[in-house]
Design goal:
Layout (H helix, E strand, L loop, with lengths): L5 E6 L3 H10 L5 E6 L2 H8 L4 E7 L7 H9 L9 E5 L5 H9 L4 E4 L4 H57 L3 E6 L4 E4 L1 H7 L3 H4 L10 H17 L3 E8 L5 E12 L5 E10 L1 H49 L6 H26 L2 H4 L12 H12 L1
Parallel strand pairs: 1-2, 1-3, 3-4, 4-5
Antiparallel strand pairs: 6-7, 6-10, 8-9, 9-10
Helix pairs in contact: 2-3, 9-10
Length: 384
């Protein structure tokens, strides 16, 4: 630090005054910046990191006191030391005015070169040490900031590790995608189930594990969700490592910033295959039961019709047999008809008792020889 040059601003409207200061302050590690007026001093001080200001009091337009007050008004130079150098204005009131303007010392011309150099050396050393302290403070802050960032990075890595351990421990397939939909993470459950490695799954490789019909539906819903940033769920079939399909319940949610922008998508796939198969079996059984009930209803309706036909014949012909004017031949024919219809009714009752065949779905049609002549005579007799 001792070899670093320090800027010193010397301000005097007289060239001989500047030359005198230059000759006295011809010291190593000092860079003299000259100004011939207060305004020029203000312009120079904004361009240099000035450690000390030596300024004449008596200057036209803007004297040393005004210039000192203007310099003190600048935030960067509120504490920059100012030494007034003057050959006149030796009254106490001028000295007090100089200190009020912000001066740290007041030197009268002609001055002792050694004394001036000593004073300048003290302020220069103070400036160097102050600057060194500022640099060290900046280094400390930078080091603390780096350490803070490093700690935050370590915490983020630890959090990510815990997140992945948690994702690997749950009995679900878990994946993560960027905001644009490109998948970049899969948990152990995914790789174990599908047989695809992480490298094979990232990007678009995961699509080979999803049934083509369900994949098209999933991508369509996902594209719609990207537009409004909403979560969604659906059922889909996923191939296992044995290339067998199993149904999964897919739930997808989005991570949002405070402003509502999507930063990532998180998805879980829950195996619902056994539950879905059981549900389908129950639905099939319900449909079969409804079909059986319809068959039973139809069967009972048919049986009611079949029973009513012979019963009508029996009741009709027994009513005819009560006629006292009926001949013996006619009565015998009525008895024969009643007997035939009674036998038919008995067969129908036997079939009704065999309804278990209908419930078991084993009802079969039978081909039985029929006497068409007798059947037509029975129909004729019934209608009569």
């Amino acid at each position: 630090m001792s070899s670093e040059r320090v800027d010193i601003l010397i301000v005097d409207d007289r060239e001989d005054g500047l030359i005198a200061l230059e000759s006295v302050l011809d010291m190593p590690n000092i860079n003299l910046v000259k100004a011939h007026s207060g305004r020029e001093a203000l312009a120079q001080i904004t361009q240099h990191d000035v450690g000390l200001i030596l300024m004449d009091v008596q200057m036209p337009i803007m004297d040393g006191f005004e210039t000192a007050r203007a310099i003190r008004a600048l935030p960067k130079h509120k504490s920059t030391p100012i030494i007034f150098v003057t050959a006149i204005n030796k009254d106490d009131r001028y000295i007090y005015q100089g200190y009020e303007a912000g001066a740290v010392d007041y030197i009268f011309k002609p001055f002792e070169p050694q004394i001036l150099r000593s004073k300048v050396g003290v302020f220069i050393e103070l400036f160097r040490k102050s600057r060194q302290l500022r640099i060290q403070a900046d280094l400390i802050r930078e080091s603390e900031m780096r350490e803070r960032y490093l700690r935050l990075a370590e915490l983020e890595v630890e959090s990510l590790k815990r997140y992945r351990n948690l994702a690997d421990a749950i009995p679900h397939l878990v994946w993560r995608a960027r905001a644009d939909g490109s998948l970049d993470y899969f948990n152990k459950g995914w790789t174990d189930y599908t047989g695809l490695s992480l490298e094979q799954s990232v990007g678009n490789g995961w699509q080979g594990a999803v049934h083509s019909e369900d994949l098209a539906k999933f991508l369509k819903i996902w594209m719609q969700s990207m537009e409004d940033g909403r979560s969604f769920d659906m059922e889909c079939r996923i191939y296992g490592s044995d290339r067998k399909l199993r149904w999964h319940w897919l739930q997808v949610g989005c991570e949002l910033t405070f402003s509502g922008a999507i930063v990532a998508w998180l998805g879980t796939c829950t195996d619902i295959h056994d539950r879905k198969m059981t549900s389908e079996k129950l639905m099939a059984a319900e449909r079969a039961a409804q079909s059986a009930n319809l068959s039973k209803t139809s069967f009972l309706a048919n049986m009611s019709h079949e029973i009513r036909t012979p019963m009508n014949s029996i009741l009709g012909f027994t009513e005819l047999m009560r006629n006292p004017e009926q001949t013996t031949k006619e009565r015998l024919e009525c008895v024969a008809t009643v007997q035939r219809n009674g036998q038919q009714l008995l067969r129908i009752i036997d079939e009704i008792l065999d309804i278990s065949k209908v419930e078991a779905g084993q009802l079969q049609m039978e081909n039985v020889p029929v006497d068409m002549g007798q059947l037509l005579r029975d129909v004729r007799a019934l209608l009569q």
